[in-house]
Amino acid sequence: MTPELIERLIDAARRARENAYAPYSEYRVGAAIATEDGSIFSGCNVENASFGATICAERGAIARMVASGGSSPIACVIVTSGSNPASPCGICRQVLAEFAKDMPIVLVGDGDVRDSTTLAELLPRRFEL
Questions:
Q1: Is 39 helix (H, G, I), strand (E, B) or coil?
Q2: pTM score, two decimals?
Q3: Shortest CA distance to 116 belongs to which of 87, 83, 74?
Q4: Tens digit of pLDDT for each residue in 18-27?
Q5: Taking a C-beta distance cutoff of 8 angstroms, is the pair 74, 99 a contact?
Q6: End-to-end CA distance of the chain, in Å?
Q7: Torsion over CA: 75, 80, 86, 88 (sign)
Q8: CA distance 35 to 74
Q9: What letter would DSSP give residue 46?
Q10: Helices (H), 19-101
C-alpha cells in the first residue's frame, strides 16, 4: 500500500464518517476499501435502536463494493471519532476475510493518530467453509 493510496483511503473514510448515523453512541466511524482495479469504496456506521441491526462502517464499505460489482480488496482504512484508533469488531473482521485472505489495515483516530496492522494479524484463524 503506497503512501498516496493510504491518504486517498483516509480521505474517503473521513468523508464517509461525516455521514455516519450515530445518535446513540455518538461514535462515528468511516471505512474505505481499495480494490485491485484501483476503485475505492467507502461506508459509515449506521446505528439502530435495535442494536443488533446496527451496520458497521467496514461492512457498509464491503456492501457498497459488492453492490457496485467490485471485488478483490487489497487495503482498508478505518477512521474513528475517538482519540485512539480502533480496530474492526469480530463480525467485520470475518466479513473482510470473506473477500481477502490478508490485506493491510490502517486505523486512524482523531488528531491523525495512526496504527497499522493486517487482516491476518487481526483474524489469524478465520472461519472458512
A1: coil
A2: 0.95
A3: 87
A4: 999 999 999 9
A5: no
A6: 29
A7: negative
A8: 5
A9: B
A10: 57-67, 90-99
The CA distance from 58 to 77, in Å, is 9
The values of phi and psi at residue 64, to 5°, are -65, -40
Q: In the chain, count of helices (H) and strands (E)?
A: 4, 5
pLDDT by residue (tens digit) across 32-74? 999 999 999 999 999 999 999 999 999 999 999 999 999 999 9
Q: What is the Cβ-side half-sphere exposure of residue 26, based on CA atoms within 13 angstroms? A: 0
Q: Which three cell numbers stand for residue 66?
A: 459488492
Q: Do 30 and 59 meet the contact criterion of CB atoms below 8 Å apart?
A: no
In the numeric block, which cell numbers belong to residue 21?
A: 448515523
Q: In whole angstroms, what is the distance from residue 20 CA to residue 13 CA? A: 11
Residue listed under C-alpha cell 482519540: 83
DSSP code at position 96 = H
Q: Which three cell numbers stand for residue 89?
A: 469488531
Which residues are known to be catalytic? Answer: 58
Instruction: Identify the CA nearest to 100 among candidates 70, 129, 64, 75.
Output: 75
What is the residue-wise DSSP string for 64-81?
A: HHHHTT---EEEEEEEES
